Amino acid sequence: MSELVVTAASARQLRERLGNLAEGEPFGFDTEASGPLLPSGKMINVHRSELTGMSFAFSDGYACYVPVAHAWGNLAYSEVRAVLEALGDTRGRCVVHGLKHEDHMSRRGSYALPAHVMCTLLLSWIQDRGGGGKKPHGLKSLARAHLGEEPQDFEHVSRGRQWRDVDPADALQYATDDAKNTLRLFQHLGDVPADHPLYATELPFARLLANMERRGVRFHTSEAFELSATLATRRQQTMEEWWWTFPDVSPSSGQQLQRLFGGPWGTAGVPRTKTGLYSTSAATMGLLSTHPDSTEEGRRGARLRLEYQEANTLLSTYLAPISIFASLHADGRIRPEALQHGTRTGRISMTSPTLMNIPVRTEMGRQVMSLFMAAHGCKLVAGDFSQVELAILAHYAGPGRLMTALLEGRDMHDFLGAQVGINRAGAKTLQYAHIYGSGPRKLAAVLHSDVDIARRAFDAYRRLFPEVPRAVQRAIQAVRDRGYARTLGGKVRHLPDIDSSDWRLRGAAERIAVNTPIQGASGYITKLAMLRAEAAGVPCILQVHDSIVAEVPAREAEDARVALQEAMRGAMMLRVPLRVEAKTGDTLVDVK
Ligand SMILES: [Mg+2]
Questions:
Q1: Alpha-carbon dihedral of residues 123, 128, 133, 134, nearest 10 degrees?
Q2: Which of 85, 202, 323, 409 is most buried, with most CB under 10 Å away?
Q3: Closest CA to 342 of 333, 334, 354
Q4: Distance, CA 140 to ligand 1 centroid (Å)?
Protein backbone atom coordinates (compact mmCIF):
# COMPACT_ATOMS: atom_id res chain seq x y z
CA MET A 1 0.00 0.00 0.00
CA SER A 2 1.09 3.60 -0.66
CA GLU A 3 0.16 6.72 1.26
CA LEU A 4 0.85 10.43 1.42
CA VAL A 5 2.45 11.34 4.72
CA VAL A 6 0.86 14.66 5.69
CA THR A 7 -0.32 14.12 9.27
CA ALA A 8 1.69 13.91 12.49
CA ALA A 9 0.30 10.41 13.08
CA SER A 10 1.44 9.03 9.73
CA ALA A 11 4.84 10.75 10.14
CA ARG A 12 5.25 9.03 13.54
CA GLN A 13 4.51 5.65 11.96
CA LEU A 14 7.16 6.32 9.31
CA ARG A 15 9.71 7.24 12.00
CA GLU A 16 8.88 4.06 13.86
CA ARG A 17 9.40 1.99 10.72
CA LEU A 18 12.81 3.56 10.20
CA GLY A 19 13.69 3.05 13.86
CA ASN A 20 12.62 -0.59 13.85
CA LEU A 21 14.74 -1.66 10.88
CA ALA A 22 17.32 -4.32 11.68
CA GLU A 23 21.03 -3.65 11.11
CA GLY A 24 21.58 -3.48 7.35
CA GLU A 25 17.92 -4.22 6.46
CA PRO A 26 17.31 -2.56 3.10
CA PHE A 27 14.65 0.05 2.32
CA GLY A 28 14.23 2.16 -0.81
CA PHE A 29 14.67 5.92 -0.63
CA ASP A 30 14.30 8.63 -3.27
CA THR A 31 13.94 12.39 -3.38
CA GLU A 32 12.20 14.74 -5.76
CA ALA A 33 13.39 18.28 -6.39
CA SER A 34 12.32 21.53 -8.06
CA GLY A 35 14.52 24.27 -9.45
CA PRO A 36 16.02 25.89 -12.53
CA LEU A 37 16.97 23.64 -15.43
CA LEU A 38 20.46 23.26 -16.86
CA PRO A 39 20.96 24.92 -20.26
CA SER A 40 21.85 21.55 -21.78
CA GLY A 41 18.37 20.09 -21.42
CA LYS A 42 15.78 18.76 -19.05
CA MET A 43 18.04 18.17 -16.07
CA ILE A 44 17.64 20.28 -12.95
CA ASN A 45 20.63 22.32 -11.77
CA VAL A 46 21.13 20.35 -8.58
CA HIS A 47 23.22 23.10 -6.98
CA ARG A 48 20.24 25.43 -7.01
CA SER A 49 17.44 22.93 -6.49
CA GLU A 50 15.20 22.49 -3.46
CA LEU A 51 13.97 19.33 -1.81
CA THR A 52 10.30 19.00 -2.77
CA GLY A 53 9.48 15.58 -1.42
CA MET A 54 10.84 12.16 -0.55
CA SER A 55 9.63 8.63 -0.94
CA PHE A 56 10.28 5.47 1.06
CA ALA A 57 9.64 1.81 0.26
CA PHE A 58 9.90 -1.09 2.70
CA SER A 59 10.25 -4.80 2.06
CA ASP A 60 6.73 -5.61 3.36
CA GLY A 61 5.30 -3.63 0.41
CA TYR A 62 4.50 -0.42 2.29
CA ALA A 63 5.57 2.76 0.49
CA CYS A 64 4.92 6.43 1.13
CA TYR A 65 5.59 9.91 -0.15
CA VAL A 66 6.37 12.86 2.11
CA PRO A 67 5.54 16.22 0.47
CA VAL A 68 7.98 18.84 1.73
CA ALA A 69 7.67 21.88 -0.53
CA HIS A 70 4.69 21.35 -2.81
CA ALA A 71 2.20 23.97 -3.86
CA TRP A 72 -0.41 21.87 -1.99
CA GLY A 73 -0.53 20.51 1.60
CA ASN A 74 2.89 19.54 2.91
CA LEU A 75 3.86 17.72 6.06
CA ALA A 76 4.53 20.31 8.80
CA TYR A 77 8.15 21.47 8.78
CA SER A 78 8.94 20.23 12.31
CA GLU A 79 7.55 16.80 11.38
CA VAL A 80 9.69 16.76 8.21
CA ARG A 81 12.79 17.45 10.30
CA ALA A 82 11.88 14.62 12.67
CA VAL A 83 11.49 12.19 9.72
CA LEU A 84 14.86 13.32 8.29
CA GLU A 85 16.47 12.75 11.67
CA ALA A 86 15.01 9.25 11.85
CA LEU A 87 16.39 8.65 8.36
CA GLY A 88 19.90 9.68 9.44
CA ASP A 89 19.73 7.52 12.57
CA THR A 90 18.33 4.31 11.12
CA ARG A 91 20.38 1.14 11.28
CA GLY A 92 18.71 -0.04 8.10
CA ARG A 93 20.38 0.17 4.70
CA CYS A 94 19.25 3.10 2.61
CA VAL A 95 19.07 1.93 -1.02
CA VAL A 96 19.11 4.82 -3.48
CA HIS A 97 19.48 5.06 -7.23
CA GLY A 98 22.22 7.64 -7.75
CA LEU A 99 24.18 8.17 -4.53
CA LYS A 100 26.00 11.25 -5.82
CA HIS A 101 22.68 12.96 -6.53
CA GLU A 102 21.28 11.97 -3.14
CA ASP A 103 24.41 13.37 -1.50
CA HIS A 104 23.66 16.69 -3.21
CA MET A 105 20.02 16.58 -2.13
CA SER A 106 20.98 15.85 1.47
CA ARG A 107 23.16 18.98 1.41
CA ARG A 108 20.39 21.04 -0.16
CA GLY A 109 17.95 19.85 2.53
CA SER A 110 20.48 19.90 5.41
CA TYR A 111 20.10 16.29 6.46
CA ALA A 112 22.39 13.28 6.66
CA LEU A 113 22.02 9.95 4.92
CA PRO A 114 22.32 6.95 7.25
CA ALA A 115 25.58 5.06 7.80
CA HIS A 116 24.56 2.13 5.58
CA VAL A 117 23.88 3.13 1.99
CA MET A 118 23.68 1.22 -1.27
CA CYS A 119 23.37 2.59 -4.78
CA THR A 120 21.63 0.46 -7.41
CA LEU A 121 23.03 2.62 -10.21
CA LEU A 122 26.61 1.78 -9.21
CA LEU A 123 25.64 -1.82 -8.45
CA SER A 124 24.23 -2.26 -11.96
CA TRP A 125 27.16 -0.44 -13.57
CA ILE A 126 29.90 -2.34 -11.80
CA GLN A 127 28.26 -5.67 -12.66
CA ASP A 128 27.47 -4.58 -16.23
CA ARG A 129 23.77 -5.39 -15.76
CA GLY A 130 22.38 -2.35 -17.58
CA GLY A 131 19.18 -2.39 -19.64
CA GLY A 132 19.12 -0.95 -23.14
CA GLY A 133 18.70 2.57 -24.38
CA LYS A 134 20.57 5.80 -23.94
CA LYS A 135 20.82 5.49 -20.18
CA PRO A 136 21.39 1.75 -19.64
CA HIS A 137 21.81 2.18 -15.88
CA GLY A 138 18.91 4.59 -15.44
CA LEU A 139 16.24 3.45 -12.98
CA LYS A 140 13.50 3.28 -15.62
CA SER A 141 15.63 1.30 -18.03
CA LEU A 142 16.67 -1.17 -15.30
CA ALA A 143 13.08 -1.53 -14.05
CA ARG A 144 12.04 -2.44 -17.59
CA ALA A 145 14.90 -4.88 -18.12
CA HIS A 146 14.92 -6.63 -14.73
CA LEU A 147 11.54 -6.11 -13.06
CA GLY A 148 9.18 -6.25 -16.03
CA GLU A 149 7.81 -2.84 -15.04
CA GLU A 150 6.69 -0.09 -17.41
CA PRO A 151 7.45 2.97 -15.27
CA GLN A 152 6.13 6.33 -16.40
CA ASP A 153 8.61 8.88 -17.69
CA PHE A 154 9.19 11.95 -15.57
CA GLU A 155 8.14 14.17 -18.47
CA HIS A 156 4.88 12.29 -18.80
CA VAL A 157 3.96 13.02 -15.18
CA SER A 158 5.37 16.54 -14.89
CA ARG A 159 4.16 17.70 -18.34
CA GLY A 160 6.69 20.53 -18.31
CA ARG A 161 5.78 21.68 -14.81
CA GLN A 162 8.12 21.93 -11.86
CA TRP A 163 7.81 18.96 -9.51
CA ARG A 164 6.27 21.12 -6.80
CA ASP A 165 3.26 21.72 -9.09
CA VAL A 166 2.55 18.04 -9.87
CA ASP A 167 -0.81 16.83 -8.48
CA PRO A 168 -0.79 14.85 -5.19
CA ALA A 169 -2.04 11.58 -6.72
CA ASP A 170 0.51 11.67 -9.55
CA ALA A 171 3.34 12.66 -7.20
CA LEU A 172 2.47 9.80 -4.83
CA GLN A 173 2.33 7.23 -7.60
CA TYR A 174 5.48 8.35 -9.44
CA ALA A 175 7.70 8.93 -6.41
CA THR A 176 6.75 5.72 -4.59
CA ASP A 177 7.27 3.74 -7.81
CA ASP A 178 10.85 5.04 -7.87
CA ALA A 179 11.53 4.03 -4.26
CA LYS A 180 9.83 0.63 -4.72
CA ASN A 181 11.71 -0.12 -7.93
CA THR A 182 15.00 0.89 -6.33
CA LEU A 183 14.44 -1.55 -3.46
CA ARG A 184 13.28 -4.32 -5.78
CA LEU A 185 16.29 -3.75 -8.04
CA PHE A 186 18.64 -4.22 -5.13
CA GLN A 187 16.85 -7.44 -4.21
CA HIS A 188 17.01 -8.57 -7.84
CA LEU A 189 20.64 -7.65 -8.59
CA GLY A 190 21.84 -9.02 -5.27
CA ASP A 191 24.46 -7.70 -2.92
CA VAL A 192 28.19 -7.99 -3.58
CA PRO A 193 30.61 -9.41 -0.98
CA ALA A 194 31.62 -7.03 1.81
CA ASP A 195 35.21 -6.88 0.52
CA HIS A 196 34.12 -5.86 -3.00
CA PRO A 197 35.64 -2.54 -4.22
CA LEU A 198 32.08 -1.22 -4.56
CA TYR A 199 32.05 -0.74 -0.78
CA ALA A 200 35.61 0.43 -0.20
CA THR A 201 35.95 2.60 -3.29
CA GLU A 202 32.91 3.33 -5.46
CA LEU A 203 30.37 4.28 -2.77
CA PRO A 204 32.79 6.65 -0.96
CA PHE A 205 33.91 7.95 -4.35
CA ALA A 206 30.34 8.99 -5.21
CA ARG A 207 30.37 11.25 -2.13
CA LEU A 208 33.79 12.59 -3.14
CA LEU A 209 32.50 13.47 -6.61
CA ALA A 210 29.54 15.29 -5.07
CA ASN A 211 31.94 17.39 -3.01
CA MET A 212 34.05 18.02 -6.09
CA GLU A 213 31.02 19.15 -8.11
CA ARG A 214 29.93 21.51 -5.35
CA ARG A 215 33.36 23.15 -5.31
CA GLY A 216 33.53 23.70 -9.06
CA VAL A 217 36.30 25.62 -10.77
CA ARG A 218 36.79 29.32 -11.44
CA PHE A 219 36.46 30.29 -15.08
CA HIS A 220 37.66 33.58 -16.52
CA THR A 221 34.47 34.67 -18.28
CA SER A 222 35.53 38.08 -19.61
CA GLU A 223 38.71 36.66 -21.11
CA ALA A 224 36.62 33.87 -22.59
CA PHE A 225 34.57 36.46 -24.50
CA GLU A 226 37.74 37.98 -25.96
CA LEU A 227 39.16 34.62 -26.88
CA SER A 228 35.86 33.66 -28.55
CA ALA A 229 36.05 36.78 -30.72
CA THR A 230 39.66 36.00 -31.68
CA LEU A 231 38.82 32.41 -32.56
CA ALA A 232 35.78 33.45 -34.60
CA THR A 233 37.99 35.81 -36.62
CA ARG A 234 40.59 33.09 -37.07
CA ARG A 235 37.93 30.68 -38.29
CA GLN A 236 36.65 33.27 -40.77
CA GLN A 237 40.16 34.03 -42.08
CA THR A 238 40.95 30.36 -42.62
CA MET A 239 37.77 29.94 -44.60
CA GLU A 240 38.55 32.96 -46.78
CA GLU A 241 42.07 31.72 -47.43
CA TRP A 242 40.64 28.34 -48.32
CA TRP A 243 38.26 29.76 -50.95
CA TRP A 244 41.01 31.96 -52.45
CA THR A 245 43.32 28.94 -52.72
CA PHE A 246 40.85 26.22 -53.65
CA PRO A 247 37.83 27.94 -55.22
CA ASP A 248 36.51 24.63 -56.62
CA VAL A 249 36.85 22.44 -53.53
CA SER A 250 34.35 22.45 -50.69
CA PRO A 251 36.17 21.82 -47.40
CA SER A 252 33.18 19.87 -46.13
CA SER A 253 32.99 17.45 -49.07
CA GLY A 254 34.97 14.31 -48.37
CA GLN A 255 34.94 13.39 -52.06
CA GLN A 256 36.35 16.72 -53.24
CA LEU A 257 38.97 16.69 -50.50
CA GLN A 258 40.01 13.25 -51.57
CA ARG A 259 40.78 14.55 -55.09
CA LEU A 260 42.69 17.53 -53.68
CA PHE A 261 44.91 15.52 -51.35
CA GLY A 262 45.47 12.79 -53.92
CA GLY A 263 48.33 10.34 -53.41
CA PRO A 264 48.94 9.87 -49.72
CA TRP A 265 45.34 8.89 -48.88
CA GLY A 266 45.90 5.45 -50.35
CA THR A 267 49.34 4.80 -48.92
CA ALA A 268 49.49 6.62 -45.61
CA GLY A 269 47.29 4.21 -43.69
CA VAL A 270 44.47 6.73 -43.41
CA PRO A 271 41.40 4.99 -42.00
CA ARG A 272 38.14 4.93 -43.96
CA THR A 273 34.78 5.83 -42.47
CA LYS A 274 31.68 3.61 -42.64
CA THR A 275 30.66 5.19 -45.95
CA GLY A 276 33.94 4.08 -47.55
CA LEU A 277 35.42 7.58 -47.80
CA TYR A 278 38.73 8.40 -46.17
CA SER A 279 38.48 9.99 -42.75
CA THR A 280 38.87 13.77 -42.63
CA SER A 281 39.52 13.81 -38.88
CA ALA A 282 42.02 16.15 -37.27
CA ALA A 283 44.42 13.21 -36.92
CA THR A 284 44.26 12.55 -40.66
CA MET A 285 44.75 16.22 -41.52
CA GLY A 286 47.74 16.35 -39.19
CA LEU A 287 49.20 13.33 -40.93
CA LEU A 288 48.64 14.69 -44.44
CA SER A 289 49.86 18.21 -43.62
CA THR A 290 53.40 16.85 -43.15
CA HIS A 291 53.34 13.69 -45.25
CA PRO A 292 56.24 13.49 -47.74
CA ASP A 293 53.96 11.99 -50.43
CA SER A 294 51.56 14.95 -50.18
CA THR A 295 51.70 17.59 -52.89
CA GLU A 296 52.49 21.18 -51.91
CA GLU A 297 48.79 21.92 -52.47
CA GLY A 298 47.68 18.94 -50.42
CA ARG A 299 49.84 19.90 -47.45
CA ARG A 300 48.54 23.46 -47.51
CA GLY A 301 44.94 22.29 -47.79
CA ALA A 302 45.34 19.89 -44.89
CA ARG A 303 46.92 22.61 -42.77
CA LEU A 304 44.09 25.06 -43.51
CA ARG A 305 41.41 22.52 -42.80
CA LEU A 306 43.14 21.55 -39.55
CA GLU A 307 43.22 25.19 -38.42
CA TYR A 308 39.58 25.67 -39.32
CA GLN A 309 38.53 22.50 -37.51
CA GLU A 310 40.44 23.45 -34.41
CA ALA A 311 39.06 26.98 -34.13
CA ASN A 312 35.57 25.66 -34.80
CA THR A 313 35.77 22.84 -32.23
CA LEU A 314 37.20 25.09 -29.53
CA LEU A 315 34.43 27.59 -30.12
CA SER A 316 31.40 25.37 -30.50
CA THR A 317 32.29 22.38 -28.30
CA TYR A 318 34.10 24.15 -25.48
CA LEU A 319 34.11 27.96 -25.20
CA ALA A 320 30.47 28.69 -26.00
CA PRO A 321 28.90 26.05 -23.72
CA ILE A 322 31.41 26.58 -20.89
CA SER A 323 30.73 30.31 -20.89
CA ILE A 324 26.99 29.67 -20.60
CA PHE A 325 27.55 27.28 -17.70
CA ALA A 326 29.84 29.81 -15.99
CA SER A 327 26.94 32.26 -15.89
CA LEU A 328 24.73 29.89 -13.85
CA HIS A 329 26.40 30.58 -10.51
CA ALA A 330 26.93 33.94 -8.87
CA ASP A 331 30.55 33.08 -8.06
CA GLY A 332 31.35 32.56 -11.77
CA ARG A 333 32.53 29.02 -11.13
CA ILE A 334 31.52 26.20 -13.39
CA ARG A 335 30.26 23.03 -11.80
CA PRO A 336 30.54 20.28 -14.41
CA GLU A 337 28.96 16.96 -13.71
CA ALA A 338 31.41 14.13 -13.06
CA LEU A 339 30.00 10.82 -14.27
CA GLN A 340 31.27 7.92 -12.22
CA HIS A 341 29.54 5.46 -14.52
CA GLY A 342 30.38 7.50 -17.62
CA THR A 343 32.59 4.94 -19.29
CA ARG A 344 32.47 1.20 -19.70
CA THR A 345 36.00 0.76 -18.39
CA GLY A 346 35.67 2.61 -15.11
CA ARG A 347 37.15 6.01 -15.90
CA ILE A 348 35.14 9.08 -15.02
CA SER A 349 34.02 11.68 -17.52
CA MET A 350 33.11 15.34 -17.01
CA THR A 351 30.05 16.73 -18.79
CA SER A 352 27.61 19.67 -18.67
CA PRO A 353 29.77 21.33 -19.91
CA THR A 354 32.08 18.75 -21.40
CA LEU A 355 35.74 19.03 -20.45
CA MET A 356 36.80 15.84 -22.15
CA ASN A 357 39.61 16.01 -24.67
CA ILE A 358 40.21 19.77 -24.73
CA PRO A 359 43.22 19.96 -27.05
CA VAL A 360 46.31 20.88 -25.03
CA ARG A 361 49.07 20.53 -27.57
CA THR A 362 48.14 23.53 -29.70
CA GLU A 363 48.46 27.22 -28.87
CA MET A 364 44.71 27.86 -29.21
CA GLY A 365 43.86 24.87 -27.03
CA ARG A 366 46.27 26.07 -24.36
CA GLN A 367 44.60 29.47 -24.37
CA VAL A 368 41.27 27.78 -23.60
CA MET A 369 42.87 25.74 -20.81
CA SER A 370 44.33 28.92 -19.28
CA LEU A 371 40.79 30.22 -18.66
CA PHE A 372 40.40 27.70 -15.84
CA MET A 373 42.10 29.28 -12.88
CA ALA A 374 42.54 29.27 -9.12
CA ALA A 375 40.35 31.51 -6.95
CA HIS A 376 41.90 34.68 -5.49
CA GLY A 377 44.52 33.79 -2.90
CA CYS A 378 44.55 30.16 -4.05
CA LYS A 379 46.66 27.94 -6.27
CA LEU A 380 45.86 24.98 -8.44
CA VAL A 381 47.73 21.79 -7.67
CA ALA A 382 47.66 18.99 -10.22
CA GLY A 383 49.17 15.54 -10.36
CA ASP A 384 49.69 13.41 -13.42
CA PHE A 385 50.52 9.73 -13.57
CA SER A 386 53.24 9.22 -16.12
CA GLN A 387 52.85 6.19 -18.38
CA VAL A 388 50.45 4.52 -15.95
CA GLU A 389 49.14 2.19 -18.65
CA LEU A 390 52.63 0.85 -19.32
CA ALA A 391 53.10 0.25 -15.61
CA ILE A 392 49.81 -1.68 -15.53
CA LEU A 393 50.80 -3.64 -18.65
CA ALA A 394 54.11 -4.54 -16.99
CA HIS A 395 52.22 -5.52 -13.83
CA TYR A 396 50.06 -7.96 -15.81
CA ALA A 397 52.95 -9.16 -18.01
CA GLY A 398 55.12 -10.03 -15.02
CA PRO A 399 58.90 -10.48 -14.94
CA GLY A 400 60.62 -9.55 -18.21
CA ARG A 401 62.42 -6.74 -19.98
CA LEU A 402 59.42 -4.36 -19.80
CA MET A 403 59.29 -4.59 -16.03
CA THR A 404 63.09 -4.29 -15.74
CA ALA A 405 63.21 -1.22 -17.95
CA LEU A 406 60.44 0.46 -15.95
CA LEU A 407 62.12 -0.45 -12.65
CA GLU A 408 65.34 1.11 -13.99
CA GLY A 409 63.34 4.29 -14.65
CA ARG A 410 64.21 4.44 -18.34
CA ASP A 411 62.45 6.69 -20.84
CA MET A 412 60.45 3.88 -22.38
CA HIS A 413 59.85 5.47 -25.79
CA ASP A 414 63.56 6.27 -26.36
CA PHE A 415 64.48 2.81 -25.07
CA LEU A 416 62.09 1.00 -27.41
CA GLY A 417 62.96 3.26 -30.36
CA ALA A 418 66.66 2.51 -29.95
CA GLN A 419 66.09 -1.24 -29.55
CA VAL A 420 63.80 -1.54 -32.57
CA GLY A 421 65.37 1.14 -34.75
CA ILE A 422 62.41 3.54 -35.19
CA ASN A 423 61.78 7.15 -34.19
CA ARG A 424 60.23 8.27 -30.91
CA ALA A 425 56.74 8.89 -32.32
CA GLY A 426 56.74 5.42 -33.86
CA ALA A 427 58.03 3.89 -30.61
CA LYS A 428 55.17 5.52 -28.71
CA THR A 429 52.63 4.02 -31.11
CA LEU A 430 54.28 0.62 -30.92
CA GLN A 431 54.47 0.83 -27.13
CA TYR A 432 50.69 1.21 -26.82
CA ALA A 433 49.78 -0.98 -29.80
CA HIS A 434 49.17 -4.04 -27.64
CA ILE A 435 47.01 -2.09 -25.21
CA TYR A 436 44.81 -0.50 -27.85
CA GLY A 437 44.94 -3.37 -30.32
CA SER A 438 46.35 -1.35 -33.19
CA GLY A 439 48.39 -3.04 -35.89
CA PRO A 440 51.23 -2.41 -38.35
CA ARG A 441 49.11 -0.17 -40.63
CA LYS A 442 48.72 2.42 -37.88
CA LEU A 443 52.44 2.27 -37.14
CA ALA A 444 53.26 2.62 -40.84
CA ALA A 445 51.13 5.78 -40.97
CA VAL A 446 53.04 7.30 -38.05
CA LEU A 447 56.43 6.28 -39.46
CA HIS A 448 55.51 7.39 -43.00
CA SER A 449 56.82 4.00 -44.03
CA ASP A 450 55.45 0.98 -45.83
CA VAL A 451 53.69 -1.72 -43.88
CA ASP A 452 56.57 -4.22 -44.13
CA ILE A 453 58.85 -1.99 -42.09
CA ALA A 454 56.11 -1.61 -39.47
CA ARG A 455 55.60 -5.39 -39.41
CA ARG A 456 59.29 -5.93 -38.76
CA ALA A 457 59.10 -3.43 -35.87
CA PHE A 458 56.21 -5.45 -34.39
CA ASP A 459 58.28 -8.64 -34.70
CA ALA A 460 61.22 -6.93 -33.01
CA TYR A 461 58.90 -5.76 -30.21
CA ARG A 462 57.68 -9.30 -29.60
CA ARG A 463 61.25 -10.63 -29.45
CA LEU A 464 62.20 -7.86 -27.04
CA PHE A 465 59.14 -8.19 -24.75
CA PRO A 466 57.80 -11.73 -25.27
CA GLU A 467 55.96 -11.41 -21.95
CA VAL A 468 53.59 -8.82 -23.47
CA PRO A 469 51.96 -10.95 -26.21
CA ARG A 470 51.75 -13.76 -23.64
CA ALA A 471 49.85 -11.45 -21.25
CA VAL A 472 47.58 -10.41 -24.12
CA GLN A 473 46.76 -14.04 -24.84
CA ARG A 474 46.10 -14.69 -21.15
CA ALA A 475 43.67 -11.77 -20.98
CA ILE A 476 41.77 -13.02 -24.03
CA GLN A 477 41.70 -16.59 -22.69
CA ALA A 478 40.39 -15.38 -19.33
CA VAL A 479 37.47 -13.68 -21.05
CA ARG A 480 36.86 -16.75 -23.19
CA ASP A 481 36.73 -18.92 -20.03
CA ARG A 482 34.27 -16.82 -18.06
CA GLY A 483 32.56 -14.59 -20.67
CA TYR A 484 33.52 -11.24 -19.22
CA ALA A 485 36.48 -8.96 -18.50
CA ARG A 486 37.04 -7.77 -14.95
CA THR A 487 39.14 -4.84 -13.75
CA LEU A 488 41.16 -4.53 -10.54
CA GLY A 489 38.31 -2.33 -9.30
CA GLY A 490 35.83 -5.19 -9.65
CA LYS A 491 34.12 -3.68 -12.71
CA VAL A 492 32.74 -6.35 -15.02
CA ARG A 493 32.28 -6.07 -18.77
CA HIS A 494 30.45 -8.87 -20.56
CA LEU A 495 31.92 -9.81 -23.94
CA PRO A 496 29.65 -12.40 -25.55
CA ASP A 497 31.29 -11.80 -28.96
CA ILE A 498 34.55 -13.33 -27.76
CA ASP A 499 33.40 -16.63 -29.33
CA SER A 500 31.66 -15.13 -32.35
CA SER A 501 32.21 -16.82 -35.72
CA ASP A 502 32.34 -13.34 -37.29
CA TRP A 503 36.04 -12.48 -37.12
CA ARG A 504 35.32 -8.74 -37.00
CA LEU A 505 33.11 -9.01 -33.90
CA ARG A 506 35.50 -11.50 -32.32
CA GLY A 507 38.48 -9.22 -33.02
CA ALA A 508 36.72 -6.25 -31.46
CA ALA A 509 35.83 -8.31 -28.36
CA GLU A 510 39.45 -9.49 -28.07
CA ARG A 511 40.72 -5.92 -28.20
CA ILE A 512 38.27 -4.93 -25.46
CA ALA A 513 39.29 -8.00 -23.44
CA VAL A 514 42.87 -6.70 -23.38
CA ASN A 515 42.03 -3.01 -23.10
CA THR A 516 39.44 -3.20 -20.30
CA PRO A 517 41.69 -4.49 -17.49
CA ILE A 518 44.34 -1.88 -18.33
CA GLN A 519 42.08 1.15 -18.76
CA GLY A 520 39.95 -0.06 -15.89
CA ALA A 521 42.95 -0.36 -13.58
CA SER A 522 44.02 3.13 -14.61
CA GLY A 523 40.58 4.53 -13.73
CA TYR A 524 40.49 2.58 -10.47
CA ILE A 525 43.95 3.82 -9.46
CA THR A 526 42.83 7.40 -10.15
CA LYS A 527 39.81 6.93 -7.87
CA LEU A 528 41.94 5.45 -5.09
CA ALA A 529 44.39 8.33 -5.47
CA MET A 530 41.61 10.93 -5.24
CA LEU A 531 40.18 9.27 -2.11
CA ARG A 532 43.66 9.31 -0.56
CA ALA A 533 44.20 12.94 -1.58
CA GLU A 534 40.93 14.02 0.06
CA ALA A 535 41.80 12.04 3.18
CA ALA A 536 45.12 13.94 3.27
CA GLY A 537 43.22 17.24 3.12
CA VAL A 538 43.74 18.00 -0.58
CA PRO A 539 40.34 19.00 -2.05
CA CYS A 540 39.94 17.81 -5.66
CA ILE A 541 38.06 20.08 -8.08
CA LEU A 542 38.58 18.44 -11.49
CA GLN A 543 39.72 15.28 -13.17
CA VAL A 544 40.80 16.03 -16.73
CA HIS A 545 43.28 14.50 -19.16
CA ASP A 546 44.38 11.91 -16.57
CA SER A 547 45.25 14.74 -14.16
CA ILE A 548 43.87 15.15 -10.68
CA VAL A 549 43.40 18.87 -10.03
CA ALA A 550 42.95 20.41 -6.58
CA GLU A 551 42.61 23.98 -5.32
CA VAL A 552 44.20 25.14 -2.06
CA PRO A 553 45.12 28.41 -0.33
CA ALA A 554 48.36 29.73 -1.87
CA ARG A 555 50.43 29.35 1.28
CA GLU A 556 49.53 25.63 1.50
CA ALA A 557 50.28 24.94 -2.16
CA GLU A 558 53.68 23.28 -1.74
CA ASP A 559 52.50 21.04 1.12
CA ALA A 560 49.45 20.10 -0.92
CA ARG A 561 51.61 19.32 -3.95
CA VAL A 562 53.72 16.89 -1.91
CA ALA A 563 50.62 15.37 -0.29
CA LEU A 564 48.92 14.88 -3.66
CA GLN A 565 52.04 13.31 -5.12
CA GLU A 566 52.29 10.87 -2.21
CA ALA A 567 48.57 10.07 -2.38
CA MET A 568 48.90 9.21 -6.05
CA ARG A 569 52.16 7.26 -5.80
CA GLY A 570 50.81 5.10 -3.01
CA ALA A 571 47.36 4.59 -4.54
CA MET A 572 48.12 0.98 -5.42
CA MET A 573 51.09 -1.34 -5.11
CA LEU A 574 51.84 -2.64 -8.59
CA ARG A 575 54.91 -4.69 -9.50
CA VAL A 576 56.47 -1.49 -10.79
CA PRO A 577 56.19 1.84 -8.98
CA LEU A 578 53.67 4.43 -10.12
CA ARG A 579 55.39 7.56 -11.36
CA VAL A 580 53.76 10.88 -10.62
CA GLU A 581 54.54 14.45 -11.47
CA ALA A 582 52.74 17.17 -9.51
CA LYS A 583 52.85 20.91 -10.13
CA THR A 584 51.33 24.08 -8.72
CA GLY A 585 50.22 27.13 -10.68
CA ASP A 586 47.54 29.71 -11.32
CA THR A 587 45.79 28.20 -14.32
CA LEU A 588 45.24 24.75 -15.79
CA VAL A 589 47.95 25.38 -18.40
CA ASP A 590 50.53 26.05 -15.67
CA VAL A 591 49.92 22.67 -14.09
CA LYS A 592 49.79 20.60 -17.29
MG1 LIG B 1 12.77 9.92 -8.33
A1: 70
A2: 202
A3: 354
A4: 10
Q: Which amino acid is at 301?
A: G
Judged on CB neighbours under 10 Å (0-12, 13-18, 19+), 22 is exposed
Count Cα neighbours of 80 within 13 Å in the Cβ-side half-sphere.
21
- CA 47 – ligand 1 centroid, Å: 17
Phi, psi of 261, deg, nearest 5: -80, -20
pLDDT grade for 426, boundaries at 50, 70 and 90:
very high
Interval between CA 210 and ligand 1 midpoint (Å): 18
Q: Select from 417, 384, 340, 388 the least CA-distant residue to 547.
A: 384
Report CA(35)–ligand 1 centroid distance (Å): 14
Cα(139) to ligand 1 centroid in Å equals 9
Ligand 1 center from residue 490 Cα (angstroms): 28
Q: How far is the CA of 28 from the centre of ligand 1 (A)?
A: 11
CATH class of 219-334: mainly alpha
Separation CA 592–CA 589 (nearest Å): 5
CA of 12 to the centre of ligand 1 (A): 23
Residue partners of 227: CB distance under 8 A and separation at least 6: 319, 367, 368, 371
In angstroms, rounded to a whole number, what is the distance separating the alpha carbons of residues 228 and 222?
A: 10
CATH entry, 2-191, from 3.20.20.370, 3.30.420.10, 3.90.1640.10, 1.20.810.10 = 3.30.420.10
Beta strand residue intervals within 352-502, DSSP E? 372-373, 378-386, 484-486, 492-494
Q: What's the gap in Å between 147 CA and the centre of ligand 1?
A: 17
CB atoms within 5 A of ion ligand 1 belong to 30, 178
pLDDT tens digits for 134-175? 889 999 999 999 999 999 888 888 888 899 999 999 999 999
53 CA to centre of ligand 1 in angstroms: 10
Q: Are strands 484-486 and 337-339 parallel, antiparallel or unpaired?
A: unpaired
Residues in the chain: 592
- Per residue in 219-267, pLDDT (tens digit) is 999 999 999 999 999 999 999 999 998 888 888 787 787 777 766 665 5
CA distance 216 to 328: 12
